[in-house]
Amino acid sequence: MEKKKRKKLGLAWQILIGLILGIIVGAIFYGNENITKYVYPLGTIFMSMIKMIVVPIIVSTLIVGVAGQGSLEKVGKLGLKTLIYFEIITTIAIILGIFLADITKFGKGIDMSQLSKGDISSYVDSSHKMAEEHHGIMDTIVSIVPTNIVSSMANGDMLPIIFFSVLFGLGVAAIGDKGKPVLAFAQGVADAMFWVTNTIMKFAPIGVFALIANTVATFGLSSLIPLGKLMILVYFAMIFFIVVVLGIIAKIAGVSMFRIIKIMKDELILAYSTSSSESVLPRIMIKTEKAGVPKDIGSFVIPTGYSFNLDGSTLYQAIAALFIAQMYNIDLTLTEQIILVLTLMVTSKGIAGVPGVSFVVLLSTLGAVGIPLEGLAFILGVDRLLDMMRTVVNVCGNTLAAFVMAKWEGRLDMDKYNNYFENEAAELAAKQK
């Protein structure tokens, strides 16, 4: 008789174990520089490997997807619908954040002498640089067109990369048979990079362990207590947004947000642990396709969402801005709150899905309504933990967007969606034979 094969521990469980062990080790070695010296590099290597594969995957899948659409008119319609949807959802997120911060007023009465201040100088420098590069909507539009695509790829600038890839894909479609070898090459690159992605994911638990251990060892668990109200408010707002707002949108589109979460559970745990939505971008594209979203739609909507549909980031920025204002006993008028909404709508566009970027955007936003920038130094200690949750919302929002756009276009394969888990089980069983 053949011995029964032991059931392999799933990636979600492996990452969760890495997360818990990282918290324990970080708490034990709080203040110990050896954590940063010996453990943190493992997390840096993992994140570097993720960043390494993002650009090739986006370029290759977009070329294949757009060439599959075949015409500028189709791509233009999809692009316009997608941007309208993104703008509506992010605006809802901002308004929800301001509403919850207004009614709870958790920032009032906090003794700021109990809070430890973090060093925000590096974030201030980044904010100044961002302010120099982008001044408004027109600057964001101008920055979409790259002067040097190789430079944009090297810097990981998503919007120029998407623009070039869409244009190149249209060119491949336009030249007919001559473009077939190029299309075959792009498809080969995409397939190879997805294999590389699955290989890199095997290292994810170690990377997560290292990143979390360093965070806890640096800031300590005690830093959470004075800002507990902010953490509770942000986590409640994020969960409410996923379950209620995205849940209603999913229901309208004929899908279930809870089913989507179940499909993406590995990616959501990884995104939470690393605070980087980029770390899961390749696998989201793979899974949405398997769940019924056509490749050309998923490969366009998801990468674009990483610049235009950061629901969690905008929701957090709205809450944090009002929380800091309340700490300083600044009561924002309705006009100032409207200015805050409009400012966030502009500044949140085109930011990268990497740790800490929301903090930089927040710095550039506070000045617009007269909130002291120094207030951010007080919440820096818990920002990483808040960043983890807002990344989950960003991933949920972009994943749902792919399903909504596919449904809107009348191309969502409901058979694949309904039978996703059965198909995955069958595929796994075939591999094990």
From TrEMBL:
Q: Where in the cell is it found?
A: Cell membrane
**PROSITE patterns in alphabetical order:** NA_DICARBOXYL_SYMP_2 (PS00714)
TM helices/strands, residue ranges? 12-32, 38-66, 78-101, 158-176, 203-226, 232-255, 357-380
* Keywords, alphabetical: Cell membrane, Membrane, Symport, Transmembrane, Transmembrane helix, Transport
Per the record, its GO cellular-component terms are: plasma membrane
GO molecular-function term, one example from the UniProt record: symporter activity
Q: In Gene Ontology terms, what is a biological process of this protein?
A: dicarboxylic acid transport
Please identify the protein, giving its name as recorded. Answer: Glutamate:protein symporter
